[in-house]
Amino acid sequence: MTTKELVKQIRKKRSFLCIGLDVDIEKIPEYLLKEEDPIFQFNKEIIDSTHDLAVAYKPNIAFYEAYGVKGWESLKKTIDYLNNNYPEIFTIADAKRGDIGNTSYMYAKAFFEDMNFDSLTVAPYMGRDSVEPFLSFKNKHTILLALTSNDGAYDFQFQKVELNTLYNKVIEVSKTYKNAENLMYVVGATKAEYIKEIRQIIPDSFLLVPGVGAQGGSLEQVCKYGLNSNIGLLINSSRGIIYASKTQGFAKEAREKAQQLQQEMKQYI
Amino acid sequence: MTTKELVKQIRKKRSFLCIGLDVDIEKIPEYLLKEEDPIFQFNKEIIDSTHDLAVAYKPNIAFYEAYGVKGWESLKKTIDYLNNNYPEIFTIADAKRGDIGNTSYMYAKAFFEDMNFDSLTVAPYMGRDSVEPFLSFKNKHTILLALTSNDGAYDFQFQKVELNTLYNKVIEVSKTYKNAENLMYVVGATKAEYIKEIRQIIPDSFLLVPGVGAQGGSLEQVCKYGLNSNIGLLINSSRGIIYASKTQGFAKEAREKAQQLQQEMKQYI
């Protein structure tokens, strides 16, 4: 998907909501467990119930890998379902990969070609030749970890390098990577005040913002500093939406939570 | 596996060789392609032919994920084959994971419990709460990326933080993590001169050293600076061993390459 198509969808739906599919079998409604593939069934119902309110879905790959081959099958069915039924949706594989060149290329093939995700989250620690293989895929997007929303972010991301923080350095250096136009960035909403500073380095890039809702970030603050002329934001909510209820009406209740966020968002679009 | 058991195996085999199973279907002998699961068959023959010379095997997870569900099945069969037939072998899932706490925990469950790997490589960028979930598993080892062997290592790992390099900072901070005794570190052999300095920070930890052979590192240099009283080194070679030949004798030729390295190693043990 091109960035232009993503922006068009955002304007049409008046939403920049991304729904995180972090599906834990212990947290889904019990009656789904009798289905052949409970995780896929859960995802399908969540997607059907919210696809007009969200512009992106983000399966968290760990939650599928944890169930081995079976989990991998659920993931494949989920991305196929999205691509076949809602081709306008932007899909994010939240995998946080990153390795030496030929290995990164294998990951890129797995997520961009075999599964046909639109984008993938990537960790920057190994530098240029670990990121560029992802960037070489046309109309695919690499979402680089810049400033994450967890406490551990203070361990390294805030370390000063040349009077700068490491996370700002990561963003600056990544702009020099080949095909850098395919980059987006993870920026945690729990630190909305830093988004202003980040926007000075990358005014035009999309930011994927986790941590609104369950993790305590403020949508208003993120919009204040993060919006650009193309909107330029994808706000993710996972648990706050998909685990709204454990009853047969779970998909309807997930929809209500998604709608609350979309209603807040539409005033900015 | 406990560190003590690993050291015992190293002394017994007089080897600290780790063989990387980075299996690309385009690089394995053609006649294997008629097998039901060519990748597993390739791995099985390599393992049977080299298990007395190596103390560890390291499947590179990207190469399995690239084949989707089928690749995941090959990986599962490979780790099961190792655990069932060569339980003394130390197994490393080279996955370079790392995410917020509950997600890291799901990854840990996938690799340590479901697949029963002894260890996993982890990227440090997200800090403490992304690493500690892995460390909480008893007799399982977390191999933290410290100084990698690729060119991109210079982008961030060599950045100065408080008069230190980021990679040394990563090592220092990680020592304060809960259950830090379960940590090992990836340290690239292409920078053997830095191993001396790293040994002053972590004299007792095991180092997983990629980049000997194909990537140009020197075993002698690595041993000079890296050996400790428990040996404390695992030297990985992937392509240099497993792709020694594309003929029916590939497993035998892989054995010869492994034996050359083991012969060099035994003088240090």
From TrEMBL, chains A, B:
Enzyme superclass (EC): lyase
E.C. number(s) listed in UniProt: 4.1.1.23
Metabolic or biological pathway, per its Swiss-Prot or TrEMBL entry: Pyrimidine metabolism; UMP biosynthesis via de novo pathway; UMP from orotate: step 2/2
Keywords carried by this UniProt record: Decarboxylase, Lyase, Pyrimidine biosynthesis
NCBIfam families registered for this protein in UniProt: pyrF_sub2
Family: Belongs to the OMP decarboxylase family. Type 2 subfamily.
Gene3D superfamilies per record: Aldolase class I (3.20.20.70)
Organism of derivation: Abyssalbus ytuae
GO biological process, one term: 'de novo' pyrimidine nucleobase biosynthetic process
Matches recorded under PANTHER family: OROTIDINE 5'-PHOSPHATE DECARBOXYLASE
Pfam families: OMPdecase (PF00215)
Catalytic residues, chain numbering: K96 (proton donor)
Protein name per its UniProtKB record: Orotidine 5'-phosphate decarboxylase
Name of the gene encoding the protein in the UniProt record: pyrF
Catalyzed chemical reaction(s): orotidine 5'-phosphate + H(+) = UMP + CO2
Orotidine 5'-phosphate decarboxylase domain ranges (all copies): 16-254
Classification of source organism: Bacteria, Pseudomonadati, Bacteroidota, Flavobacteriia, Flavobacteriales
Keyword Lyase: yes
Family annotation (InterPro entries): Aldolase_TIM, OMPdecase_type-2, OMPdeCOase_dom, RibuloseP-bd_barrel
Listed GO MF terms: orotidine-5'-phosphate decarboxylase activity
